[in-house]
TrEMBL record:
Function of the molecule: Forms a complex with DNA polymerase epsilon subunit POLE3 and binds naked DNA, which is then incorporated into chromatin, aided by the nucleosome remodeling activity of ISWI/SNF2H and ACF1. Does not enhance nucleosome sliding activity of the ACF-5 ISWI chromatin remodeling complex.
Segments of skewed composition (Acidic residues): 119-129
Gene Ontology cellular component annotations, sorted alphabetically: CHRAC
Gene responsible for this protein: Chrac1
Any single GO BP term: chromatin remodeling
GO molecular function (one): nucleotidyltransferase activity
Residue numbers spanned by region Disordered: 108-129
Subcellular location: Nucleus
Protein name listed in UniProt: Chromatin accessibility complex protein 1
Major location category of this protein: nucleus
CDD domains: HFD_CHRAC1-like
Length: 129
């Protein structure tokens, strides 16, 4: 039996994250019916260590050292550049100006229309054959 199962309120400080919130997140998965205390504790601890690693890595490899601060830009740069963290790229996107984003959307829309027109043309060719 692991120590996690015998944790009293004061020993819960072994993890900083709130176990009740982690339980709610875990239960939100349809595959999960019940959650063992040890599994809950280990998930919380692993999450905490992961966040710590991400923050430390981002601080060391970002501009944080210069400013003595960890910034969102440092985190998004890590997600973009470091293979280990690339799965976070959608969650930590690079910040861009709203005007730039709107231009990108407009371009995607135009490109999409061009592609659709092209596809329709191909279908007509197929019918002629």
């Amino acid at each position: 039996e692991m120590a996690a199962a015998r944790l009293s309120g004061s020993e819960n400080r072994l993890v900083s994250l709130p176990l009740s919130r982690i339980r709610v997140i875990m239960k939100s998965s349809p595959e999960v019916s019940s959650i063992n205390q040890d599994a809950l504790f280990l998930t919380a601890k692993a999450t905490e260590l992961f966040v710590q690693y991400l923050a430390t890595y981002s601080y060391k490899h970002g501009r944080g050292k210069e400013k003595n601060a960890l910034t969102y830009t440092d985190l998004s740069h890590t997600a973009e550049e470091c293979e280990t963290f690339q799965f976070l790229a959608d969650i930590l996107p690079k910040k861009i100006l709203a005007s730039k984003y709107l231009k990108m959307l407009e371009k995607e829309k135009r490109d999409g229309e061009v592609r659709e027109d092209h596809d329709e043309g191909e279908e007509e060719d197929d019918e002629d054959k």
